[in-house]
């Protein structure tokens, strides 16, 4: 909004010229979201505790160390959505359709997550709304986002799939692009959701991924850098860097309260929203496969669940002591801080590999 209000007056007031710079507005989004999260965090946590009383239900078959977390409120993702949302509205170009597509996906999936968290609290169970119903709503929002994306993007590249390490090359998917893009958004959302099982485990890899996509969106939307790097140039996508900045700022603010021992849990409200936002950005900038590398930790967590379920149904045996993967290591005796920090390291390594695909073409 500040860009739309102030940049037209840059000729008369030189200071307003700053709002034309994407890097300045991205930095502003980081700081604004961080400050808002710090300001609303304590009161929101008190409100959530008052409303929830018993806090997030703890799985009875889960690691024994989790029982000491009983009473910790959930739905902390609300403070992420509020702080990031206000920051995006202030610093992004609100006339940019890609901003509305990604922000809309985040809000939509956040509402689904909030409904799921509410169902868990009212039922006093770790089971929320029925899985099929949740998936139906997720696919509905994803389909609307993909339809909007195809409407606003150049037909020459809209249904193409970029292959990492291959320069100026897109695989034409045609009609198959629609279900593929929906799968990316829904898959990324639920992958982050599965990873969110320990204090601080999911939020830092999300911030790492957001930082990477801040660079990617900036390059894809830049008429100079995109041809130089051999990636598709999509005008207007650079504005998504502001959303990435808002996610980073909101994530840092939330981590202040979510650091062990957590004062609040993110819940599905935050994990579904942020994962879907990353997936939507990957679709818009044609870096869906790179997201699988940068967000490789989320992929590993998801695969561990799929392997565990498939193995048990086919053979009656479990491959892991418990799934998702972080619970397996808990059962093996690793302390929670050890698991979280080592998973952060893995996320950083995968992020570096993912960013390397921009230059190694």
Oligomer: single chain
Give the overall average pLDDT: 91
Q: Estimate the helix proportion, in percent.
A: 55-70%
Shape: globular
Summed up, the domain count is 1
**Physical arrangement of strands within the biggest beta sheet:** 1-2
Could you describe the largest sheet, including whether it forms a barrel?
2 strands, antiparallel
Write up what this structure looks like.
The protein has 361 residues and is an all-alpha fold. The chain has one domain. The protein has 14 helices and two strands, in the order αααααββααααααααα. The chain has a two-stranded antiparallel ribbon with strand order 1-2. Helix 6 (177-195) packs antiparallel against helix 10 (267-284), helix 6 packs across helix 12 and helix 11 (288-294) packs antiparallel against helix 14. The chain is globular and about 60 Å long. The mean pLDDT is 91.
Throw out a few tags for this protein.
mainly alpha, two-stranded antiparallel sheet, globular
Topology, pairings included?
Blueprint: H1 2-6, H2 22-52, H3 77-91, H4 97-123, H5 131-152, E1 160-162, E2 170-172, H6 177-195, H7 203-220, H8 225-229, H9 240-258, H10 267-284, H11 288-294, H12 296-315, H13 325-331, H14 336-359
Antiparallel strand pairs: 1-2
Please provide a brief summary of the model.
With 361 residues, the chain is mainly α.
């Amino acid at each position: 909004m500040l860009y739309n209000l102030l940049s037209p007056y840059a000729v008369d007031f030189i200071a307003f010229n700053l709002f034309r710079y994407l890097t300045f507005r991205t930095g502003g989004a980081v700081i604004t979201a961080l400050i808002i999260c710090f300001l609303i965090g304590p009161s929101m946590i008190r409100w959530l505790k008052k409303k929830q009383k018993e806090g997030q239900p703890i799985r009875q078959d889960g690691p024994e160390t989790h029982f000491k977390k009983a009473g910790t409120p959930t739905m902390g993702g609300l403070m992420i959505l509020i702080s990031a949302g206000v920051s995006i509205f202030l610093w992004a170009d609100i006339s940019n359709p890609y901003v509305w597509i990604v922000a809309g996906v985040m809000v939509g999936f956040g509402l689904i997550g909030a409904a799921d968290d509410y169902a868990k609290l009212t039922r006093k169970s770790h089971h929320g709304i029925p899985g099929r119903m949740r998936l139906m709503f997720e696919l509905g929002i994803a389909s609307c986002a993909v339809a909007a994306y195809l409407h606003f993007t150049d037909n020459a590249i809209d249904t193409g799939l970029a292959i990492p390490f291959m320069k100026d090359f897109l695989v034409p998917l045609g009609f198959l692009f629609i279900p593929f893009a929906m799968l990316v958004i829904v898959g990324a959302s639920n992958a982050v959701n599965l990873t969110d099982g320990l204090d601080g485990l999911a939020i830092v890899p999300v911030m790492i991924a957001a930082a990477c996509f801040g660079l990617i969106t900036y390059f894809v939307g830049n008429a100079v850098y995109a041809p130089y790097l051999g990636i598709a140039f999509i005008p207007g996508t650079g504005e998504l860097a502001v959303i990435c900045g808002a996610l980073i700022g909101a994530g840092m603010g939330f981590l202040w309260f979510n650091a062990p021992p957590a004062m609040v849990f993110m819940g599905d409200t935050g994990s579904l929203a942020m994962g879907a936002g990353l997936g939507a950005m990957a679709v818009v900038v044609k870096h869906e496969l790179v997201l699988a590398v940068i967000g490789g930790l989320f992929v590993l967590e998801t695969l561990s669940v799929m392997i565990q379920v498939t193995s048990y149904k086919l053979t009656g045996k479990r491959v892991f002591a418990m799934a998702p993967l972080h619970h397996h290591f808990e059962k093996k005796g690793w302390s929670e801080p050890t698991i979280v920090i080592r998973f952060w390291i893995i996320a950083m390594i995968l992020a570096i590999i993912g960013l390397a695909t921009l230059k190694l073409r």
